[in-house]
Amino acid sequence: MKTLIALLGRITINILGEMGGMAVMLAKSISLTFTPPFRIRNLIKQMEIIGVNSVPVVLLTGLFTGMVLALQGYYGFKKFGGESLLGATVTLSMTRELGPVLTSLMVTARAGSAMAAELGTMKVTEQMDALAAMAVDPLQYLIVPRIWASVLMLPLLTVLADAIGIVGGYIVGVKLLGIDPGIYVQRTIDIVQLKDITDGLIKAAVFGLLLALIGCYKGYHAKGGAKGVGEATTHAVVIASIAILIGDYILTSLLM
């Protein structure tokens, strides 16, 4: 029993220590954001890497998510004659939940892992020490652009995922399942509100902050050579994914 309590205590201390370290990194990053020199070129480069390069996987994810939602929803609504609600259901599901969550998970797998691996490699090969020796703050040069690029690009990627998901739902619902297009579109307009879209975009920005902060933190504190970099990358993806799912529940509770 004592061994179990001691294990739980160590796990709790480690979790709280990591959360504290991430909070400190975030506070320093926010402070350095408003401290010259401003690395605009680095920010634009990271926006391309995190945002533009993620467009294909986000579009594919959004398209097939919307199509599956329409296909599954149709057979559920058909049992009580509610097929006309299919368009609104697909749109609400994409804009409020699945759009921001799935987009963030895909970007975590693609860009969040890359952040941890790249920064971890720079850490274990002492490239960050070299930057500090040249009077360049590694936090300001490497981490601040990644955090803000994620916060800015995740809502834009979510808009793309929402739009293509809605199109996919329309194709399945109207073209394949034969729902009247006028009714499909009109019920969607009647039910879906602007708040449903903005809530999803707020979630996406928060998820972007989480995945970038966790990926950068794990990479920044990597140690132990190639093995340590691999472990840091794996931990970053797993922790960021869990944080996104937990954050989704919390934000949904707050925004309802």
Features:
256 residues, mainly alpha, 86% helix
Q: How do the helices and strands line up, and which of them pair or pack?
A:
Elements: H1 2-33, H2 40-50, H3 55-77, H4 86-124, H5 127-133, H6 138-176, H7 181-191, H8 194-220, H9 225-255
Helix pairs in contact: 1-6, 2-6, 3-4, 3-6, 4-6, 4-7, 4-8, 4-9, 6-8, 8-9
Describe the structure.
- By secondary structure, the chain is mostly helical.
- It has one domain (37-255).
- 86% of the residues lie in helices and 0% in strands.
- The chain contains nine helices and no strands.
- Helix 4 (86-124) packs parallel to helix 8 (194-220).
- The protein is elongated and about 65 Å long.
- The model has no long low-confidence stretch (mean pLDDT 89).
Summarize the structure.
With 256 residues, this protein is mostly helical. It has nine helices and no strands. The protein has helices at 2-33, 40-50, 55-77, 86-124, 127-133, 138-176, 181-191, 194-220, 225-255.
* Range of strand content: under 5%
Q: Structural class given helices, strands, pairing?
A: mainly alpha
Average of per-residue pLDDT values: 89
Helix content: over 70%
Radius of gyration: 21 Å
Distance between the terminal alpha carbons, to the nearest Å? 42 Å
Please trace the helix and strand order, writing H or E for each element.
Answer: HHHHHHHHH
Number of strands: 0
Q: Shape from CA axes?
A: elongated
Q: Helix tally?
A: 9
Main sheet summary: none
Tell me the number of structural domains. Answer: 1
Ranges where pLDDT stays below 50 over 5 or more residues in a row are none
